[in-house]
């Protein structure tokens, strides 16, 4: 592999040629933003393209609740009283190209699109100034999977069956949380704090996660209330919806656009496209000291985001006063619950219990979230080509995630163990993911795309540790202002599969396919 300086010179030359042709990547519109561990330089998908009219500051548009769907600007105002998913989810679409949000959040997008097309079109809106979103509906793989999910699992039209089924899990998880808090309040200690941390992590992985995606219930009110449990455990449901759904889900493992990748820098390096520091060679060891602090990091980030109206990966264009108030109210409720035992117990005892809660919850959440996107086969550095909106969105979701376990893991992680299925269908309740996984595996085999899956959590966790060690020494292979180009090897694999989908050879994927994909990724990262 060529050294990084040579690659950078080549990419810069290509950038200059593109600019001469009148094509400018929105990755050049980089701005300094407050990251978790200091200021980071990152391109933004919600700032005006260079040299274009800025609709976010133009008096003609800045007060309108506009969105863009497939190169057409719409006024969302008439839809706020009619949106079946509720206003909090619809607010995510305000002030950005919402194509990927719309198409990935609706199992039957043609119905949603039909309603969308009835909205007022904003003529003369500077659509070209708004960075384009990926387009899930243009992915043959995604369409093939979605059609089967609709017809085989949810054939009843308009019944919202895909948002149902999580009632039992919700009752068990919240019941355990009430039990854990009762023990914590009556007998604060390191052990009871740890028990409360486990219950908080379980809520964070399951109830709040699924509800904030609008998938725990057909009722927006129920989803909103369950989503607020994120605030009770120390997070912010508002900030989570923007950073997780607008940034991470749409641009999974994108070095420049997925804030889960770049905001950990410079302390932790998840991607070889990030700058390498001397201390990263120890990150596979010290990350276990950093992970317990995730709770504190999010607390600080939530407050900063409240004042800036900005998460690291998405601006809060649509956040209402009510939503913003949940940040403050949530913090008061969270710390009130944590410190309530001070009324009957010594300060040192309570503080020890609080510290135990923070450490256990942070460690469980960080480790569970991190493993599925940070193994070698989920880090192919160049995917199916070009800018974010030019890629095959379905393939990107498939090749940037890895599954582990089955139904038991699904129950305890809210479907986060089946990360591929969750990213493709975030608005489907997690209890349905095991059935969807079978379909995804079969369709991926037909298309010849590797479907990374591990039998157990320890299995993927050991690969995660190995990957983090490798990332500590891997050469830097690009920078965040560079347009990523077509991965010819993966694209060729896809083209061959498309022309022979009925071939039994493509169905019978060999047992070594996962190791082949892992080795491919390692070669591309220039690892030994």
Give a topology summary:
Blueprint: H1 4-20, E1 30-35, E2 38-43, E3 66-69, E4 72-75, H2 87-90, H3 99-105, H4 109-116, H5 140-153, H6 167-186, H7 190-205, H8 207-212, H9 220-227, H10 229-232, H11 237-249, H12 259-262, H13 283-290, H14 294-308, H15 321-339, H16 347-371, H17 393-399, E5 403-404, H18 407-413, H19 419-424, H20 433-447, E6 453-454, H21 457-471, H22 488-499, H23 504-507, H24 513-524
Parallel strand pairs: 5-6
Antiparallel strand pairs: 1-2, 3-4
Structure description:
- A two-stranded antiparallel ribbon has the order 1-2. A two-stranded antiparallel sheet has the order 3-4. Strands 5-6 form a two-stranded parallel sheet.
- The protein has 4 domains: 4-43, no CATH class; 66-138, Flavocytochrome B2, Chain A, domain 1, CATH 3.10.120; 142-161 and 373-524, no CATH class; 163-358, no CATH class.
- Helix 5 runs antiparallel to helix 20 (433-447).
- The protein is globular and about 65 Å long.
- It has helices at residues 4-20, 87-90, 99-105, 109-116, 140-153, 167-186, 190-205, 207-212, 220-227, 229-232, 237-249, 259-262, 283-290, 294-308, 321-339, 347-371, 393-399, 407-413, 419-424, 433-447, 457-471, 488-499, 504-507, 513-524; strands at 30-35, 38-43, 66-69, 72-75, 403-404, 453-454.
- Mean pLDDT is 82; it is low at 1-42, 479-514 and 520-528.
- The chain has 528 residues and is mainly alpha-helical.
- The protein contains 24 helices and 6 strands.
- A hairpin with a 2-residue loop joins strand 3 and strand 4 (72-75).
């Amino acid at each position: 592999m060529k050294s990084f300086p040579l690659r950078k010179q080549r990419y810069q030359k290509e950038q200059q040629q593109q600019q001469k042709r009148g094509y400018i990547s929105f990755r050049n519109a980089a701005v300094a933003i407050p990251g978790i561990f200091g200021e980071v330089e990152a391109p933004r998908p919600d700032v005006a393209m260079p040299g274009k009219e800025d609709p976010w500051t133009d008096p003609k548009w800045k007060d309108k609740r506009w969105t863009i769907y497939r190169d057409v600007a719409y006024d969302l105002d008439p839809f706020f009283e009619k949106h079946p998913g509720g206003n909090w989810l619809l607010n995510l679409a305000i002030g950005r190209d919402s194509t990927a949000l719309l198409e990935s959040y609706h199992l039957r997008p043609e119905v949603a699109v039909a309603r969308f097309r009835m909205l007022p079109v904003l003529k003369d809106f500077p659509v070209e100034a708004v960075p384009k979103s990926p387009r899930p509906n243009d992915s043959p793989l995604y369409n093939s999977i979605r059609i089967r999910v609709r017809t085989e699992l949810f054939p009843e039209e308009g019944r919202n069956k895909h948002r149902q089924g999580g009632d039992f899990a919700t009752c068990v998880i919240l019941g355990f949380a009430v039990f854990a808090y009762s023990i914590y309040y009556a007998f604060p200690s390191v052990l009871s704090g740890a028990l409360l941390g486990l219950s908080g992590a379980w809520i964070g992985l399951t109830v709040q996660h699924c509800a904030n995606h609008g998938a725990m219930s057909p009722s927006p009110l129920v989803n909103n209330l369950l989503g607020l449990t994120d605030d009770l455990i120390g997070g912010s449901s508002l900030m989570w919806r923007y950073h997780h759904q607008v940034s991470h889900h749409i641009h999974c493992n994108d070095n420049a656009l997925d804030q889960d990748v770049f905001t950990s820098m410079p302390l932790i390096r998840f991607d070889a496209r990030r700058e390498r520091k001397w201390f990263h060679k120890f990150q596979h060891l010290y990350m276990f000291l950093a992970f317990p602090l995730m709770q504190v990091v999010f607390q600080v980030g939530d407050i900063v985001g409240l004042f800036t109206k900005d998460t690291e990966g998405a601006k809060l264009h649509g956040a209402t006063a009510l939503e913003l108030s949940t940040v403050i109210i949530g913090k008061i409720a969270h710390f009130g619950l944590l410190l309530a035992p001070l009324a009957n117990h010594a300060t040192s005892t309570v503080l020890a219990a609080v510290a135990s809660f923070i450490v256990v919850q942070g460690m469980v959440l960080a480790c569970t979230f991190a493993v599925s996107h940070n193994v070698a086969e989920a880090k192919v550095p160049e995917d199916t080509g070009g800018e974010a909106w030019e890629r095959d969105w379905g393939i990107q979701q498939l090749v940037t995630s890895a599954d582990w376990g089955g139904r038991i893991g699904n129950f305890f992680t809210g479907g986060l163990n089946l990360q591929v299925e969750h990213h493709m269908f975030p608005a489907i309740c997690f209890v349905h993911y095991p059935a969807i996984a079978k379909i995804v595996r079969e369709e991926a085999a037909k298309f010849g795309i590797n479907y990374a899956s591990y039998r157990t959590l320890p299995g993927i966790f050991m690969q995660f540790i190995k990957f983090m060690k490798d990332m500590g020494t891997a050469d830097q292979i690009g920078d965040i202002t560079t347009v990523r180009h077509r991965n010819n090897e993966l694209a060729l694999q896809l083209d061959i599969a498309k022309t022979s989908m009925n071939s039994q050879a493509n169905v019978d994927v060999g047992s070594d396919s996962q190791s082949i994909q892992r080795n491919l990724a390692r070669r591309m990262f220039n690892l030994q």
